[in-house]
């Protein structure tokens, strides 16, 4: 995985020569270059490494404001903080090209120069690369993480902008007057393992992981009984109790995953056979040991 540095598309650019002389000379002069890589240091602008063919040389640590798409001054001539909206968020960095939106038309909302238009090159994105190092950055916090979309602007400059400072238009699928986004920043840490209905029914060898609710629901329907309501209570750290109210009476179960045990009671009225439920559950759990006891009421 990339850390600190990532490869870039070999994109031809022009470098403002004053950036090659520590801003001491070369103002108004331009040097042909080709992007090679980008560096990510938290709290700083992205640094671009550029090959300069006329000098057979490499030059490192140039900000996005050092580059132009043609050897002439841009209009407007925007400053660095208008060209990159956020600093780097971690040492971990990767460059990707988002193919689906790559050919679309872009608008960016700058700090001081209104709306500017451009075309997509690639996206630089940060992540926390070392699980053994303290994560003091914001690259993996949902409310703070930002992507850095690298664009060539029509004014002759390049920029790195997050998704929420851009509009992206496609001639085929974007309506003539698109709606104004009224979205909120995502602040939720989404995950699917903890706090859900796994309930310990199944093992790592099972292709499909089964849950008590799933199995009992299928068993009841297999028995042609009608579920009116269902209640599930999960215990910490494991175990579950499920209750099903039926038109024919009710079904209940309790699990002890730590002992590989499940107890269930099936109460029915009329002609329905609760043994159909029991046998379905035994087969679904691939139980090696089980006992069925029938009590007539």
What does this molecule look like?
The chain folds into two domains: 5-169, no CATH class; 212-284, S-adenosylmethionine decarboxylase (4-Layer Sandwich). It is 9% helix and 34% strand. The protein contains three helices and 16 strands. It has helices spanning 80-83, 212-222, 274-284; strands at residues 5-7, 12-16, 30-39, 47-52, 57-62, 67-68, 92-96, 105-109, 115-127, 148-153, 158-161, 166-169, 227-234, 240-246, 249-256, 261-268. Strands 1, 2, 3, 4, 5 and 6 form a six-stranded antiparallel β-sheet that branches. Strands 7, 8, 9, 10, 11 and 12 form a six-stranded antiparallel β-sheet that branches. β10 (148-153) and β11 form a beta hairpin. α2 (212-222) packs across α3. It is elongated and about 100 Å long.
Low-confidence runs (pLDDT<50, min 5 residues)?
none
- Count every beta strand, where a strand is a DSSP E run of 2 or more residues: 16
Structural class: mainly beta
Helix content: under 10%
Mean pLDDT: 89
Q: What Rg do the Cα atoms give?
A: 31 Å
Question: Can you describe this structure in just a few lines?
Answer:
The chain has 297 residues and is mainly β.
List keywords for this structure.
six-stranded antiparallel beta sheet; mainly beta; 3 helices; S-adenosylmethionine decarboxylase
Q: Secondary-structure blueprint of this entry?
A:
Layout lengths: L4 E3 L4 E5 L13 E10 L7 E6 L4 E6 L4 E2 L11 H4 L8 E5 L8 E5 L5 E13 L20 E6 L4 E4 L4 E4 L42 H11 L4 E8 L5 E7 L2 E8 L4 E8 L5 H11 L13
Antiparallel strand pairs: 1-3, 2-3, 2-6, 3-4, 4-5, 7-9, 8-9, 8-12, 9-10, 10-11, 13-14, 14-15, 15-16
């Amino acid at each position: 995985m990339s850390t600190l540095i990532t490869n870039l598309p070999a994109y031809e650019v022009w470098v403002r020569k004053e950036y090659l002389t520590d801003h001491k000379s070369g103002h108004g002069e331009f040097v042909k270059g080709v992007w090679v890589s980008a560096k990510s240091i938290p709290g700083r602008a992205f640094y671009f490494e550029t090959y300069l063919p006329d000098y057979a040389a490499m030059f490192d640590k140039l900000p996005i404001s050092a580059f132009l798409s043609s050897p002439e001054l841009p209009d407007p001539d925007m400053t660095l903080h208008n060209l990159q909206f956020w600093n780097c968020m971690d040492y971990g960095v990767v460059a990707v090209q988002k193919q689906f939106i790559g050919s679309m038309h872009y608008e960016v909302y700058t700090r001081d120069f209104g709306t500017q238009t451009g075309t997509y090159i690639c996206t630089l994105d940060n992540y926390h690369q070392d699980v053994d190092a303290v994560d003091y950055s914001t690259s993996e916090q949902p409310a703070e993480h930002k992507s850095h979309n690298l664009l060539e602007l029509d004014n002759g400059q390049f920029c790195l902008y997050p998704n929420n400072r851009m509009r992206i238009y496609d001639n085929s699928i974007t309506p003539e007057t698109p709606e104004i986004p009224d979205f909120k920043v995502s602040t939720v840490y989404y995950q699917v393992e903890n706090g859900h209905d796994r309930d310990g029914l199944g093992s790592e060898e099972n292709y499909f992981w089964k849950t008590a609710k799933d199995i009992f629901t299928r068993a009841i329907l297999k028995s042609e009984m009608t579920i009116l309501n269902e209640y599930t209570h999960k215990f910490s750290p494991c175990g579950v109790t499920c209750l099903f109210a039926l038109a024919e009476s009710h079904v209940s179960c309790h699990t002890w995953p730590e002992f590989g045990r499940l107890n269930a009671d099936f109460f029915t009225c009329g002609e329905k056979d609760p043994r159909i439920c029991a046998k379905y559950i035994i087969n679904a759990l691939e139980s090696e040991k089980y006992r069925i006891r029938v009590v007539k009421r």
